[in-house]
Amino acid sequence: MSDIVDHSRRQFLSFAGKAGLTTLVAQAVGINLGVVDIVRAQTGKRGVEPFRFAIISDAHLYSMPDHKFDQQLADAVAQVNAMTPLPDFVLFGGDVAQNGTEDQLVKGNKILAGLKMPLKLIPGEHDWYLDMGDAWRGLFGDETWSFNHKGVHFIGLNSILVRDFWTEAGMTPLERMTVMEMLESPIPGPWGVHEKQLEWLANDVKDLAPDTPVVIFTHSPLWDYYPRWNFQTSDAPEIREILSKFDNVMSYHGHVHQTLYNRIGNMSSVAALGTAWPWPYPPVELAFPETRMNRADPSIATDGMGTQVIDLSGSFEGLVQYKPFEDSLTPFMRDGFKV
Amino acid sequence: MMTNQMLKIERILAVSAAAAVFAAGTSWARAPFTDEELAEQKAALVESIALGYDLWHGSRADMTTNGLACGNCHPDTAASNPQTFPKYMTMYGKVIPFREMVNWCIENPQAGARLDVNGDDMTAMEAYAFYLHRGKEITPGLASEQTTPIVVEYGAGYARTPTGVGVDTKP
């Protein structure tokens, strides 16, 4: 189990030691762009000290200097830094890079270094398949992790592992990367976390009590949303089974570049907006269609993109608020929703 | 000079010919296409769709200066809504055809060079997008909603020769 670290991995900030403390901390939590302030001052029955964390996801940085996506990621960093109160930390939902090159990952790391708070990341397929994660690991550390923060157990998994389609075909690393860059690529098939991480997950949670608040973080959703675009994780049923003993599990993910909520059993699932571009909603029925955002207007360059912040209460209830760069939310979504 | 009698005879012959066509039911201005001809026509269409698929996914360098391709935002041509054109687009302030919308995306989000609207490449882009919306209701002017393409079960979405790699194995 690792402590959360900052983006540079130089400063280790142990939150684990603070977990479960009954510290009376009055937090002015800004809701609806600061229109309403509420004060939370007590630890919940499960030992959760209320706090907030933010998610930035899917920057898809290119190598060109001064690419528009660089500024969009910088805008996301500025947006999170301006949140009141500040999130305790930021989770990055994968796909720092577009083509998996080291220069793109280094550029992303440099921009994300502007965050005032610690950062934790999991990889996306665009970060990974040029060098099978070597550069990503060198910059950001292990892709499988967990830590405790103020009474909540956070888990991160690498959900973009596919079977080896390149060796037998004699593909170069660049060809492998190019295949993986295309959302609707007919070659790689469904991805997942695979057996080794499933074993790690089972071991990680085996000693946790059922009322432990759990947040799991992956690039792709832990349910079958639209497998053709890998809006899925192939071993999500096994993940949900391992986590089925818990009263309440929150799953947050990137990859889909859109607002979205779902729930299966004890697991709620919330998608993150990207900072690069919005994906369309695929041709499937949704259980909670009201959580869709407006159709992005292509004439507004950053419509349908942004960040998100989640306030966790003492009873491990989450208030999810999307923070789009533009006016992208339906009235239903503007006040946030509880998970 | 044609007399009234001659005109009358000509009308009778025309009506008779039309009646014969109607009665026969299978008379045509030309013979139906043979299976071989239909196969050739389908192959030509698939060739155009395949070219469109490649262009959609970045095969032509001058369509972008920032690395973006149509497929970045429109996987399987989703949300390109070809069946809703012609329609009013705010960036033009007038009704435009689908091919002009394609060029808008090339010139703006992709910062590339527009295609010849009468060229084979543009036709191919249309062929790919429309093929993945086949059977969808034609609704010109629908401007505010995202529509979806057909569900693509496997492969590229059209009858492409399988690559033999990965899941792309069905014809």
Automatic annotation (TrEMBL), chain A:
GO MF term set: hydrolase activity
UniProt xrefs under Pfam families: Metallophos
Xref: InterPro entries: Calcineurin-like_PHP (IPR004843), Metallo-depent_PP-like (IPR029052), STPP_CPPED1 (IPR051918), TAT_signal (IPR006311)
Residue span(s) of domain Calcineurin-like phosphoesterase: 51-258
Stored PROSITE patterns: TAT
Domain of life per record: Bacteria
Matches recorded under PANTHER family: METALLOPHOSPHOESTERASE, CALCINEURIN SUPERFAMILY, SERINE_THREONINE-PROTEIN PHOSPHATASE CPPED1
Name assigned to this protein: 3',5'-cyclic AMP phosphodiesterase CpdA
Organism name: Thiocapsa roseopersicina
From TrEMBL, chain B:
Keyword terms of this UniProt record: Heme, Iron, Metal-binding, Signal
GO-annotated molecular function: electron transfer activity; heme binding; metal ion binding
InterPro entries in alphabetical order: Cyt_c-like_dom, Cyt_c-like_dom_sf
Pfam families: SoxA-TsdA_cyt-c
Signal peptide: 1-29
Domain annotation Cytochrome c: ranges: 47-159
Top-rank taxon: Bacteria
UniProt-recorded name of the protein: Thiosulfate dehydrogenase
